[in-house]
Amino acid sequence: MKYYLVAGEASGDLHASNLMRSLQRLDKDADFRFFGGDLMQSAGGTLVRHYRDMAFMGIIPVVLNARTILRNLTFCKKDIAAYRPDMVILVDYPGFNLKIAQYVKTKLGIPIYYYISPKVWAWKKYRVRLFRKYVDEMLSILPFEVDFFREHQYKVHYVGNPTVDAVTYRDHKEETFIQFVEANGLENRPIIALLAGSRKQEIANNLPSMLEAVKGYSEGYQLIVAGAPGIDPAFYNDFVTSFPPARVLFNQTYRILAQSDAALVTSGTATLETALLNVPQVVCYRTPMPRLTYWIFRHILHTPYISLVNLVCGRPVVKELFARFFTVDNIRNELKQILHVQSYRQNMLDNYEEMRRILGGPGASERAAGIIYGKGAANDGNRQGVQSSPGK
Description:
This protein is α/β, with parallel strands linked by helices. The protein folds into two domains: 2-166 and 362-377, Glycogen Phosphorylase B (Rossmann fold); 170-359, 3-Layer(aba) Sandwich (Rossmann fold), CATH 3.40.50.2000. It has helices spanning 10-26, 38-43, 59-64, 66-83, 94-108, 127-134, 144-151, 162-168, 177-183, 200-214, 233-240, 253-258, 269-276, 290-299, 308-313, 328-340, 342-359, 364-388; strands at residues 2-7, 31-36, 46-50, 87-91, 112-115, 137-140, 156-158, 191-195, 222-227, 246-250, 260-265, 281-285, 319-322. The strands form two sheets. A seven-stranded parallel beta sheet has the order 3-2-1-4-5-6-7, with helices on both faces. The longest helix is centred in the C-terminal third of the chain and has 25 residues, at 364-388.
């Protein structure tokens, strides 16, 4: 079968590439064409547009790049129409993908599957009606999303979380602390990891305060910044040069976390990865106009937490220091708790175990591929049956 995928960010590229490989194991004739990235390209098929040319986040960047976004939308629609896939698979990236879904469903009549739901449960609940109207089925990776979508009478499958797979099958899984520090020219001292985000603006907003918060720990700990993929190493220089003990390592996030005593982490998938690797963490996220942001969070958004760990568990497991609570002193005090108060630290680790149980085991991409391929094969069989029926 022919599959057209659209992923607009680095995380979507990762999860879509794993889904593609799972589909290849089921469908020996699988042919892929996609908007995505290097990982999807390594899985096979034709890369039409790289997500680097699409990833505009925030109001101002979107406005400034409106023409480029419109051109990408127009080109994507025409390319799908020319390719005539058996199905379209959309991966997160809702602002773009819901427009594609509307076109594909109304103009082409091609089945559409959405892998990795946008966070409509947090805000923009009105988008659920768009999913019901234009997307055949949702393949969710967060268990609490199932109840939300079912409450809105929309068909959803929980397939497991691909981050569980990524952590379970990661490279260097058996690596020891000594092996890690020797491989990277580090010292034999415990590590505090800093994960400041995946985009330049996030890093610029969060990293300076993170570094300031851990400054007093540089005597007893090594401070390691996990460099984000796609970010020029030179971008980090302005931040770490004023903090000589800090080191930036690229393409080793899981290895860094696996050997860390604690981590400062921005919200997002990184909080889940950190918990799955059993590292006590402080979730910290700087926002503009912090008091207004917190008021909006409390009174307009439809979610009690910003971190996936707390959302999955349905209760506060990790401290969330964002908006008006994002201060150097607050970060430093929470870090002190998870490093030096054993009961506090152990309680967090015990809650991580509960989170793993809720998420379930690995196999998310295989389960998602099984649903997609099964539906596609059934549709193909129905079409062939119609074509071969007498009188048709």
